[in-house]
Every structure is written in structure tokens, then in C-alpha cells.
Structure prediction request, 51 residues.
Amino acid sequence: MKVNIENKIRRKQEILDSDLAKLYKCANGTKTINLAVKRHVNRFSKDICFN
Prediction:
């Protein structure tokens, strides 16, 4: 399944962790994305919000 992530980014100011997991083909799904954010939150711009 091809994810059209470009359209999602341009239409909205947000992107779901499930979409990122598909984009990066994470084996563990959203768990991998969420863990990476927790470990490296200081690397992200202040404009990006994680809940």
C-alpha cells in the first residue's frame, strides 16, 4: 500500500504517527516512531507538537 504522505503534509499542520510508521516502513508500527520521539525530543523544532 503506497502512502501519499505529501498530500497529507500540505493540507494539514499535523501528521499521525501511524502515517509516519507507514512512510518509514517501521516493523513495530507506531511504537518505533513514538520511542524515537521520546528519545530525541530535543532534536525537533519547537513548532512541532507531540501529544
